[in-house]
């Protein structure tokens, strides 16, 4: 029998053993082995620090620019979009900015868009790329994927077919000579292949940025961490405007706006017996 | 352009004649909430109705009531409650403390995703209890391949305690109490076969494992169970978050750090 002193968690009690950093209030802060205020601050901007913190690796300015570019082209201040709507509803209910944004970002971890889609897409491209490298034909690799993982993440868009963000993203990548990486080329190849099979599932922006992430060496988890707030700049204006309107004025719902489709009226049991 | 209404099978309101935004009556799955349910139904009966769309039997309501009591407070050592206290001690909004508890308590090790996976296993068992032990053994030995998803792998079979030594007394008490309600066959079966499963997993069952069997006996889907577990553990998170400011942050642990990669140490070397 294990006695209390040999329990494997005992070694972790009452202290933090860490390699990623620590704050020494009044003195300094260490970030992954560097002095945050005198070393990293000179060499990295917020975005560079973000990816360095997640991966421990430094990326080229072009790679950072391509990744950051997506934070711009995907920031839609449209309160109808589900995650943005959460933020606008937070404003109309007079919740705080941070609570509203935290909820909006959490909701962005959706299966059919956002973080869930991107996580699967990075893994998808890596799987198919590895298959092709081992000589597996594309069609067979895709069938194998579909049999074990389901639909192709990042192909087909919930609300529209053509994704208007792809062209500017490719243009930005071209500027930095990064538009011909193996996973990005594969992403377009898959789109063409599906089209040739009579399946016009157009690639969406989530797929494209995930292909770039794979080209730049991100794991799905690393990319999830980095892009957790990629929609943020679209959300903030929705909050500001929601707050400028009367309380409750963002998407007020009348009783007649709800379609009831459940059982008809019935009586609650008078006496509660089985 | 016409806008789709919100579709629901759960809630039906009748407007006040002078205000399209105010309800004169509200029915939940057909039952008059404020005219008949209120004052007669227990909280557990209402929760069961909301999730299942039907009035629970006495045994089902008793099971849910007891499960809610057992889950109400995971206690201050639990990571989800610890997270809520981090909100409370610093004066974060109440919702932030509960968000913290939900996010941490959602996890695949000891959290709601753990329960989702365990409940998935229960839901995939056939109707013959005689076959359940073999199914569970197979499931423990060869867990199903999981799809690509952001939930990190827990590294242990769902419903078991990766840091357990023997089954904790509180968990046994919970299992015995819940099984005694006889709301379904799974809890009594788990009570009878717990040691077999634990021997196979080389781990004791966790409160999540017990809750999963209870949710299975209540007929909840894995999605429903995951959601309800998150809800039922919030009271403890709330009160511990509220309690910490009364002690003050100086009495809340702030742990010593051992920094393994310190530039100052490197310079000194």
Provide the descriptors you would attach to this structure in a database record:
heterodimer, A: mainly alpha, 51% helix, B: 269 residues, mainly alpha, three-stranded antiparallel β-sheet, 13 helices, 5 strands
Describe the protein:
Chain A is mainly α. Chain A has 12 helices and 5 strands. In chain A, helix 9 packs antiparallel against helix 10. The model of chain A has no long low-confidence stretch (mean pLDDT 93). Chain B has 269 residues and is mainly α. Chain B has helices spanning 33-37, 43-52, 58-71, 79-89, 94-104, 112-124, 132-141, 169-179, 186-201, 207-217, 222-232, 234-247, 263-268; strands spanning 6-8, 11-16, 19-28, 31-32, 257-259. The longest helix of chain B has 16 residues, at 186-201. Chain B starts with 5 loop residues before the first strand and ends with a helix. The mean pLDDT of chain B is 96. At the A-B interface, strand 1, strand 4, helix 5, helix 6 and helix 11 of A face strand 1, strand 2, strand 3, strand 4 and helix 5 of B. Strand 5 of chain A pairs parallel with strand 1 (6-8) of chain B, so a sheet runs across the interface.
- Mean pLDDT figure of chain A: 93
Low-pLDDT segments of chain B: none
Oligomer: heterodimer
Derived structural class of chain B = mainly alpha
N-to-C SSE series of chain B? EEEEHHHHHHHHHHHHEH
Low-confidence parts of chain A: none
**Largest beta sheet: strand ordering of chain B:** 2-3-4
Mean pLDDT of chain B: 96
What is the H/E order of chain A? EEEEHHHHHHHHHHHHE
Shape of chain A: globular
Count of helices of chain A? 12
Main β-sheet of chain B, in a few words? 3 strands, antiparallel
Rounded to the nearest angstrom, the radius of gyration of chain A is 24 Å
Helix content estimate of chain A: 40-55%
Tally of contiguous helical segments of chain B: 13
Which two chains form the greatest contact, residue counts included?
Answer: A-B, 63 and 55 residues
Number of strands of chain B: 5
Biggest β-sheet strands, sense, barrel of chain A: 3 strands, antiparallel
* Shape annotation of chain B: globular
Number of strands of chain A: 5
């Amino acid at each position: 029998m294990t006695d209390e002193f040999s329990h494997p968690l005992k070694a972790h009690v009452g202290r933090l053993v860490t390699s990623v950093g620590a704050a020494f209030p009044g003195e300094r802060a260490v970030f992954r082995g560097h002095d945050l205020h005198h070393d990293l601050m000179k060499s990295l901007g917020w975005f560079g620090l973000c990816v360095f913190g997640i991966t421990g690796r430094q990326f080229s300015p072009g790679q950072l620019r391509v990744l950051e570019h997506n934070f711009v082209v995907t920031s839609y201040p449209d309160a109808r979009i589900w995650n943005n709507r959460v933020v606008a509803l937070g404003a109309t209910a007079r919740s705080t900015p941070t609570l509203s944004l935290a909820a909006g970002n959490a909701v962005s971890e959706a299966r059919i868009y956002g973080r869930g889609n991107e996580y699967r897409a990075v893994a998808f491209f890596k799987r198919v790329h590895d298959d092709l490298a081992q000589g597996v034909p594309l069609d067979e690799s895709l069938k194998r994927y579909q049999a074990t993982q389901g639909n192709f993440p990042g192909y087909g868009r919930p609300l529209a077919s053509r994704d208007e963000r792809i062209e500017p993203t490719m243009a930005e990548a071209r500027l930095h000579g990064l538009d011909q990486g193996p996973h990005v080329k594969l992403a377009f190849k898959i789109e063409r292949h599906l089209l040739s099979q009579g399946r016009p599932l157009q690639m969406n922006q989530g797929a494209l940025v995930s292909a770039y992430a794979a080209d730049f060496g991100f794991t799905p988890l690393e990319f999830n961490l980095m892009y957790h707030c990629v929609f943020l700049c679209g959300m903030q204006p929705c909050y500001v405007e929601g707050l400028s309107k009367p309380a409750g004025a963002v998407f007020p719902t009348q009783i007649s706006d709800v379609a009831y489709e459940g059982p008809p009226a019935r009586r609650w049991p008078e006496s509660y017996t089985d | 352009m016409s806008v789709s209404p919100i579709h629901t099978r759960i809630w039906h309101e009748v407007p006040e004649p002078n205000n399209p935004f105010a309800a004169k009556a509200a029915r939940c799955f057909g039952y008059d909430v404020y005219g008949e349910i209120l004052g007669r139904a227990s909280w557990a009966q209402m929760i069961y109705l909301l999730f299942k769309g039907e009035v629970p039997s006495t045994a089902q309501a008793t099971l849910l009531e007891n499960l809610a009591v057992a889950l109400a407070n995971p206690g201050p050592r639990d990571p989800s409650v610890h997270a809520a206290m981090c909100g409370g001690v610093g004066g974060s909004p109440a919702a932030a403390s509960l968000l913290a508890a939900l996010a941490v308590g959602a996890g695949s090790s000891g959290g709601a995703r753990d329960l989702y996976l365990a409940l998935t296993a229960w839901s995939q068992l056939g109707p013959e209890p005689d076959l359940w032990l073999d199914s569970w053994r197979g499931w423990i030995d060869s867990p199903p391949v999981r799809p690509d998803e952001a939930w990190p792998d827990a590294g242990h079979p769902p419903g078991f305690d990766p840091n357990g030594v023997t089954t904790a007394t509180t968990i046994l008490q919970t299992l015995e109490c819940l099984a005694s309600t006889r709301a379904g066959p799974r809890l009594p079966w788990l009570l009878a076969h717990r040691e077999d499963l634990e021997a196979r997993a080389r781990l004791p069952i966790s409160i999540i494992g017990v809750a999963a069997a209870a949710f299975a006996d209540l007929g909840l889907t894995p999605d429903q169970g995951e959601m309800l577990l998150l809800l039922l553990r919030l009271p403890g998170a709330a009160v511990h978050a509220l309690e910490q400011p009364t002690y003050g942050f100086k009495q809340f642990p702030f742990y010593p750090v051992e920094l393994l990669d310190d530039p100052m140490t490197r310079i000194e070397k």
